[in-house]
Amino acid sequence: MSNPSTVDLNSLEPQQLVEFRKSIDQEINHFTQSLQALQTAQSKLRECISSINNLEKSSSDDLLIPLTSSLYLPGKSIKKNEFLVDIGTGYFVEKSAKDAKQVYDYKITKLNDDGRKLKDILVQKNEILNSVNLVLRKKMIEYESQQEAAAEQQKVSA
Amino acid sequence: MAEAKQQFESLSLEFNQQQNSLNELITARSQLETQFQENKIVLTEFESLNEDSKIYKLTGPILLPQDYSEAKMNVSKRIEFIEGEISRVETKISDEEKAMEATRQKLLAIRAQMA
After folding, report:
1. How far is CA B57 from CA B29, B38, B72, in A?
2. Could you tell me if residue A3 is inside a domain?
3. ipTM here
4. Which residue in A83, A91, A99, A113 has the most chain B C-beta atoms within 10 A of its own C-beta, making it the best mutation to test that interface?
5. Residue A148 — φ and ψ, nearest 5°?
6. pLDDT tens-digit readout, A3-21
7. Which of A12, A79, A123, B7 could form a disulfide bond with A16, CB atoms 3.0-4.6 angstroms apart?
8. Concatenated DSSP letters for B76-101?
Protein backbone atom coordinates (compact mmCIF):
# COMPACT_ATOMS: atom_id res chain seq x y z
CA MET A 1 0.00 0.00 0.00
CA SER A 2 2.30 2.71 1.25
CA ASN A 3 5.40 2.58 -0.84
CA PRO A 4 8.36 4.23 0.82
CA SER A 5 9.37 7.21 -1.25
CA THR A 6 12.64 5.75 -2.48
CA VAL A 7 12.84 2.19 -3.70
CA ASP A 8 15.64 1.21 -5.99
CA LEU A 9 13.93 -0.25 -9.04
CA ASN A 10 16.98 -2.38 -9.70
CA SER A 11 16.50 -4.19 -6.39
CA LEU A 12 13.03 -5.44 -7.33
CA GLU A 13 12.22 -8.83 -8.79
CA PRO A 14 10.95 -8.87 -12.39
CA GLN A 15 7.53 -10.09 -11.20
CA GLN A 16 7.29 -7.17 -8.80
CA LEU A 17 8.29 -4.82 -11.59
CA VAL A 18 5.54 -6.20 -13.81
CA GLU A 19 2.99 -5.73 -11.03
CA PHE A 20 4.27 -2.23 -10.43
CA ARG A 21 3.99 -1.44 -14.11
CA LYS A 22 0.43 -2.71 -14.13
CA SER A 23 -0.58 -0.43 -11.30
CA ILE A 24 1.11 2.55 -12.94
CA ASP A 25 -0.72 1.75 -16.16
CA GLN A 26 -3.99 1.76 -14.26
CA GLU A 27 -3.17 5.08 -12.65
CA ILE A 28 -2.28 6.63 -15.99
CA ASN A 29 -5.56 5.41 -17.46
CA HIS A 30 -7.47 6.81 -14.52
CA PHE A 31 -5.80 10.21 -14.76
CA THR A 32 -6.27 10.40 -18.54
CA GLN A 33 -9.96 9.73 -18.06
CA SER A 34 -10.18 12.41 -15.40
CA LEU A 35 -8.44 14.85 -17.69
CA GLN A 36 -10.93 14.12 -20.45
CA ALA A 37 -13.82 14.58 -18.02
CA LEU A 38 -12.38 17.96 -17.04
CA GLN A 39 -12.15 19.02 -20.64
CA THR A 40 -15.75 18.03 -21.41
CA ALA A 41 -16.90 19.91 -18.32
CA GLN A 42 -14.98 22.95 -19.50
CA SER A 43 -16.52 22.91 -22.96
CA LYS A 44 -19.98 22.65 -21.38
CA LEU A 45 -19.26 25.70 -19.25
CA ARG A 46 -18.05 27.58 -22.31
CA GLU A 47 -21.34 26.73 -24.02
CA CYS A 48 -23.18 28.31 -21.10
CA ILE A 49 -21.17 31.52 -21.49
CA SER A 50 -21.71 31.67 -25.23
CA SER A 51 -25.45 31.09 -24.71
CA ILE A 52 -25.59 34.08 -22.40
CA ASN A 53 -23.63 36.16 -24.89
CA ASN A 54 -25.91 35.13 -27.74
CA LEU A 55 -29.01 35.99 -25.80
CA GLU A 56 -27.59 39.37 -24.85
CA LYS A 57 -26.63 40.15 -28.42
CA SER A 58 -29.86 39.08 -30.11
CA SER A 59 -32.29 41.95 -30.68
CA SER A 60 -35.50 39.95 -30.78
CA ASP A 61 -37.15 38.27 -27.82
CA ASP A 62 -38.14 35.22 -29.83
CA LEU A 63 -36.72 31.86 -28.95
CA LEU A 64 -37.64 28.23 -29.24
CA ILE A 65 -38.25 26.37 -26.05
CA PRO A 66 -37.22 22.74 -26.11
CA LEU A 67 -39.91 20.41 -24.79
CA THR A 68 -37.93 17.36 -25.79
CA SER A 69 -34.74 17.21 -27.78
CA SER A 70 -36.81 17.05 -30.97
CA LEU A 71 -39.88 19.12 -30.10
CA TYR A 72 -39.80 22.89 -29.72
CA LEU A 73 -42.30 25.63 -28.92
CA PRO A 74 -41.94 29.22 -30.06
CA GLY A 75 -41.63 31.54 -27.09
CA LYS A 76 -40.56 34.97 -26.00
CA SER A 77 -38.06 35.80 -23.32
CA ILE A 78 -39.38 38.40 -20.88
CA LYS A 79 -36.15 39.19 -19.11
CA LYS A 80 -32.81 38.98 -20.80
CA ASN A 81 -30.65 39.89 -17.91
CA GLU A 82 -31.67 37.37 -15.34
CA PHE A 83 -30.41 33.83 -15.31
CA LEU A 84 -30.79 30.90 -12.98
CA VAL A 85 -27.36 29.45 -12.46
CA ASP A 86 -26.80 25.92 -11.23
CA ILE A 87 -24.14 26.25 -8.55
CA GLY A 88 -24.12 22.55 -7.70
CA THR A 89 -25.87 19.99 -5.45
CA GLY A 90 -29.29 21.11 -6.69
CA TYR A 91 -29.02 24.78 -5.78
CA PHE A 92 -29.84 27.45 -8.34
CA VAL A 93 -29.24 31.16 -7.88
CA GLU A 94 -30.71 34.06 -9.77
CA LYS A 95 -27.95 36.10 -11.31
CA SER A 96 -27.43 38.88 -13.80
CA ALA A 97 -25.71 38.06 -17.09
CA LYS A 98 -22.45 39.52 -15.83
CA ASP A 99 -22.49 37.61 -12.55
CA ALA A 100 -23.52 34.41 -14.27
CA LYS A 101 -20.61 34.67 -16.66
CA GLN A 102 -18.33 35.34 -13.72
CA VAL A 103 -19.41 32.10 -12.08
CA TYR A 104 -18.67 30.14 -15.23
CA ASP A 105 -15.38 31.92 -15.83
CA TYR A 106 -14.31 31.13 -12.30
CA LYS A 107 -15.20 27.47 -12.78
CA ILE A 108 -13.31 27.32 -16.07
CA THR A 109 -10.13 28.77 -14.53
CA LYS A 110 -10.43 26.36 -11.63
CA LEU A 111 -10.77 23.45 -14.03
CA ASN A 112 -7.77 24.78 -15.94
CA ASP A 113 -5.69 24.70 -12.78
CA ASP A 114 -6.83 21.18 -11.96
CA GLY A 115 -6.12 20.12 -15.52
CA ARG A 116 -2.60 21.48 -15.29
CA LYS A 117 -2.01 19.60 -12.04
CA LEU A 118 -3.32 16.43 -13.65
CA LYS A 119 -1.03 16.89 -16.62
CA ASP A 120 1.96 17.29 -14.31
CA ILE A 121 1.03 14.07 -12.53
CA LEU A 122 0.63 12.32 -15.86
CA VAL A 123 4.09 13.43 -16.97
CA GLN A 124 5.57 12.15 -13.72
CA LYS A 125 3.77 8.83 -14.00
CA ASN A 126 4.93 8.40 -17.57
CA GLU A 127 8.51 9.02 -16.48
CA ILE A 128 8.18 6.36 -13.80
CA LEU A 129 6.64 4.00 -16.32
CA ASN A 130 9.56 4.56 -18.68
CA SER A 131 12.17 3.90 -16.03
CA VAL A 132 10.33 0.76 -14.92
CA ASN A 133 10.26 -0.45 -18.49
CA LEU A 134 13.94 0.28 -18.85
CA VAL A 135 14.90 -1.64 -15.72
CA LEU A 136 12.61 -4.48 -16.70
CA ARG A 137 14.24 -4.78 -20.10
CA LYS A 138 17.69 -4.74 -18.53
CA LYS A 139 16.62 -7.50 -16.12
CA MET A 140 15.30 -9.58 -18.97
CA ILE A 141 18.58 -9.30 -20.85
CA GLU A 142 20.53 -10.19 -17.71
CA TYR A 143 18.26 -13.16 -17.08
CA GLU A 144 18.65 -14.42 -20.61
CA SER A 145 22.43 -14.18 -20.56
CA GLN A 146 22.42 -16.02 -17.22
CA GLN A 147 20.29 -18.75 -18.74
CA GLU A 148 22.66 -19.03 -21.65
CA ALA A 149 25.67 -19.19 -19.37
CA ALA A 150 23.98 -21.92 -17.34
CA ALA A 151 23.23 -23.87 -20.51
CA GLU A 152 26.83 -23.52 -21.61
CA GLN A 153 28.04 -24.86 -18.27
CA GLN A 154 25.69 -27.78 -18.47
CA LYS A 155 27.04 -28.63 -21.88
CA VAL A 156 30.60 -28.46 -20.60
CA SER A 157 29.92 -30.68 -17.61
CA ALA A 158 28.00 -33.15 -19.75
CA MET B 1 -0.04 -31.25 5.91
CA ALA B 2 -3.62 -31.47 4.62
CA GLU B 3 -4.74 -29.45 7.61
CA ALA B 4 -2.23 -26.72 6.86
CA LYS B 5 -3.36 -26.65 3.27
CA GLN B 6 -6.97 -26.26 4.31
CA GLN B 7 -6.03 -23.49 6.68
CA PHE B 8 -4.05 -21.81 3.95
CA GLU B 9 -6.99 -21.89 1.59
CA SER B 10 -9.46 -20.50 4.08
CA LEU B 11 -6.98 -17.77 4.97
CA SER B 12 -6.41 -16.77 1.39
CA LEU B 13 -10.17 -16.69 0.89
CA GLU B 14 -10.40 -14.38 3.87
CA PHE B 15 -7.63 -12.26 2.43
CA ASN B 16 -9.50 -11.89 -0.85
CA GLN B 17 -12.66 -10.91 0.97
CA GLN B 18 -10.76 -8.32 2.95
CA GLN B 19 -9.26 -6.99 -0.23
CA ASN B 20 -12.72 -6.66 -1.80
CA SER B 21 -14.19 -4.85 1.16
CA LEU B 22 -11.16 -2.56 1.22
CA ASN B 23 -11.77 -1.73 -2.43
CA GLU B 24 -15.40 -0.99 -1.69
CA LEU B 25 -14.40 1.28 1.16
CA ILE B 26 -11.96 3.13 -1.07
CA THR B 27 -14.67 3.69 -3.70
CA ALA B 28 -16.97 5.01 -0.96
CA ARG B 29 -14.20 7.28 0.24
CA SER B 30 -13.62 8.79 -3.20
CA GLN B 31 -17.37 9.29 -3.69
CA LEU B 32 -17.52 11.15 -0.40
CA GLU B 33 -14.60 13.27 -1.50
CA THR B 34 -16.44 14.26 -4.68
CA GLN B 35 -19.52 15.23 -2.68
CA PHE B 36 -17.39 17.10 -0.20
CA GLN B 37 -15.69 19.14 -2.93
CA GLU B 38 -19.00 19.90 -4.64
CA ASN B 39 -20.57 21.10 -1.42
CA LYS B 40 -17.54 23.23 -0.65
CA ILE B 41 -17.88 24.93 -4.04
CA VAL B 42 -21.55 25.62 -3.30
CA LEU B 43 -20.67 27.05 0.08
CA THR B 44 -18.02 29.40 -1.33
CA GLU B 45 -20.63 30.48 -3.87
CA PHE B 46 -23.04 31.22 -1.01
CA GLU B 47 -20.34 33.24 0.73
CA SER B 48 -20.22 35.59 -2.23
CA LEU B 49 -24.00 36.08 -2.20
CA ASN B 50 -26.09 38.16 0.13
CA GLU B 51 -29.47 37.92 1.83
CA ASP B 52 -31.28 39.36 -1.18
CA SER B 53 -30.13 36.76 -3.69
CA LYS B 54 -32.90 34.52 -4.87
CA ILE B 55 -31.98 30.93 -4.26
CA TYR B 56 -33.86 27.91 -5.53
CA LYS B 57 -33.44 24.31 -4.56
CA LEU B 58 -34.07 21.56 -7.08
CA THR B 59 -36.58 19.24 -5.42
CA GLY B 60 -37.45 16.43 -7.75
CA PRO B 61 -38.35 18.07 -11.06
CA ILE B 62 -39.25 21.49 -9.67
CA LEU B 63 -37.33 24.44 -8.30
CA LEU B 64 -38.45 25.61 -4.88
CA PRO B 65 -37.44 29.03 -3.63
CA GLN B 66 -35.37 28.86 -0.50
CA ASP B 67 -34.10 31.30 2.08
CA TYR B 68 -30.48 32.38 1.87
CA SER B 69 -29.72 31.58 5.50
CA GLU B 70 -31.60 28.30 5.35
CA ALA B 71 -29.83 27.19 2.19
CA LYS B 72 -26.45 28.12 3.61
CA MET B 73 -27.16 26.31 6.84
CA ASN B 74 -28.24 23.22 4.94
CA VAL B 75 -25.03 23.13 2.96
CA SER B 76 -22.87 23.69 6.05
CA LYS B 77 -24.72 20.88 7.82
CA ARG B 78 -24.18 18.63 4.86
CA ILE B 79 -20.48 19.41 4.80
CA GLU B 80 -20.27 18.55 8.49
CA PHE B 81 -22.09 15.29 7.88
CA ILE B 82 -19.82 14.40 4.96
CA GLU B 83 -16.73 15.16 7.03
CA GLY B 84 -18.05 12.79 9.69
CA GLU B 85 -18.65 10.12 7.08
CA ILE B 86 -15.16 10.60 5.65
CA SER B 87 -13.49 10.07 9.02
CA ARG B 88 -15.74 7.07 9.67
CA VAL B 89 -14.78 5.46 6.35
CA GLU B 90 -11.12 6.30 6.93
CA THR B 91 -11.05 4.51 10.29
CA LYS B 92 -12.74 1.56 8.59
CA ILE B 93 -10.09 1.63 5.86
CA SER B 94 -7.22 1.61 8.33
CA ASP B 95 -8.90 -1.19 10.33
CA GLU B 96 -9.31 -3.22 7.19
CA GLU B 97 -5.70 -2.60 6.22
CA LYS B 98 -4.55 -3.81 9.61
CA ALA B 99 -6.72 -6.91 9.34
CA MET B 100 -5.31 -7.56 5.89
CA GLU B 101 -1.78 -7.23 7.15
CA ALA B 102 -2.54 -9.69 9.97
CA THR B 103 -3.99 -12.21 7.51
CA ARG B 104 -1.00 -11.75 5.26
CA GLN B 105 1.37 -12.51 8.13
CA LYS B 106 -0.62 -15.65 8.98
CA LEU B 107 -0.53 -16.70 5.35
CA LEU B 108 3.22 -16.26 5.20
CA ALA B 109 3.68 -18.24 8.42
CA ILE B 110 1.64 -21.14 7.09
CA ARG B 111 3.41 -21.06 3.78
CA ALA B 112 6.73 -21.26 5.61
CA GLN B 113 5.43 -24.28 7.54
CA MET B 114 4.25 -25.98 4.42
CA ALA B 115 7.49 -25.49 2.55
Report:
1. 26, 15, 11
2. no
3. 0.72
4. A91
5. -60, -45
6. 445 677 888 888 888 999 9
7. A12
8. HHHHHHHHHHHHHHHHHHHHHHHHHH
